[in-house]
């Protein structure tokens, strides 16, 4: 049997992949797959030469989302793409959270503000939602990590939050959420799914004085054991997103004001999988990717 050729699509800044993805690449090669790491927007790449293109670390897509979504559709037209192009288009705009909420998923309360409309007075907007007297988060609906995010003091006394919101709305859609104190205390819980099944979970904890849970802010990730309630919410989130279980996915949960779990993010495009946090996780995902590549190759030959 010919070894499947699998692309782990990355960005120009990570030609050798992220450490997490290197674990996956090593696990795939141990299963006799051939692995390459092409840059997603390199015009010289022949995507049809791969049996499967796995979206892994295109961490500049938010700067050129339209081109990225178009690329996904192009790749899907010549070979197998995971996750699929329609999922990528939907999940790269955080308004997907509104869709999840409409489908009954408990998400962080959010005010959605469309591009081009006059920015409302932020303090009044918060008061109308019953959030007066508490901090808020203002960010764009298209972003990566914490890009474009501002934590606004209660009441926005200096007006910086309102100015930030005006700037965001001049460029695109924006969202406003109440700040959840649990982020500082315990961070986020991430549940990692492989082919629709729970693989492992990690707790991402920020350092003292910080609330953002990305490594560049000093956050650390450690293995965690989710509760039955948290797993159930994560499963409902995936089910609400798609009738077909994604090859990979990450559900990020945070504790709400009464400690109930809420969905902060559903990552179906390029999530870090935290493979080092769980023994056997890299091999588990590699087997699923390899199976998908072989199935795609067989379908192409049929």
UniProtKB/TrEMBL annotation:
GO terms for molecular function: ATP binding; glutathione synthase activity; metal ion binding. Keywords: ATP-binding, Ligase, Nucleotide-binding. Residues 97-294 form the ATP-grasp domain. It holds the Pfam family GSH-S_ATP. Coiled coil: none annotated. It comes from the Bacteria. The keyword Nucleotide-binding applies. SUPFAM superfamilies: Glutathione synthetase ATP-binding domain-like (SSF56059). PANTHER family: GLUTATHIONE SYNTHETASE, PTHR39217. This is Glutathione synthase/RimK-type ligase-like ATP-grasp enzyme. It comes from Conexibacter arvalis.
């Amino acid at each position: 049997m010919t070894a499947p050729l699998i692309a782990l699509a990355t960005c120009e800044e990570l030609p050798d992949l992220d450490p997490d993805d290197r674990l996956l690449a090593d696990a795939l090669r141990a299963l006799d797959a051939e692995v390459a790491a092409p840059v997603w927007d390199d015009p010289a790449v022949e995507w049809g030469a791969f049996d499967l293109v796995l979206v892994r670390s295109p961490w500049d897509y938010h700067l050129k989302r339209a081109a990225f979504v178009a690329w996904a559709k192009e790749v899907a037209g010549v070979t197998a793409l995971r996750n699929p192009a329609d999922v990528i288009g939907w999940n790269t705009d955080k308004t997907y959270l509104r869709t999840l909420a409409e489908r009954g998923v408990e998400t962080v309360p959010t005010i959605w503000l469309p591009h081009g409309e006059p920015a409302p007075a932020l303090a009044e907007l918060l008061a109308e939602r019953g959030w007066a007297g508490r901090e808020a988060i203002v960010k764009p609906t298209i972003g990566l990590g914490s890009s474009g995010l501002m934590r606004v003091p209660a009441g926005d006394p200096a007006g910086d939050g309102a100015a930030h919101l005006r700037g965001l709305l001049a460029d695109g859609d924006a969202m406003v959420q109440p700040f959840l104190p649990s982020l500082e205390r315990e961070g986020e819980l991430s549940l990692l799914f492989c082919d629709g099944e729970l693989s492992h979970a990690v707790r991402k904890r920020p350092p003292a004085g910080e609330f953002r849970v990305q490594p560049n802010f000093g956050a650390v990730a450690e293995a965690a054991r989710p509760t039955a309630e948290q797993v159930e919410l994560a499963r409902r989130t995936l089910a609400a997103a798609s009738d077909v279980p994604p090859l990979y996915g990450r559900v990020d949960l945070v504790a709400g004001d009464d400690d109930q779990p809420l969905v902060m993010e559903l990552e179906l495009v390029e999530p870090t999988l935290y493979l080092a946090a769980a023994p056997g996780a890299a091999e588990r995902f590699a087997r699923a990717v390899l199976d998908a590549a072989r199935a795609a190759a067989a379908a192409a030959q049929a």
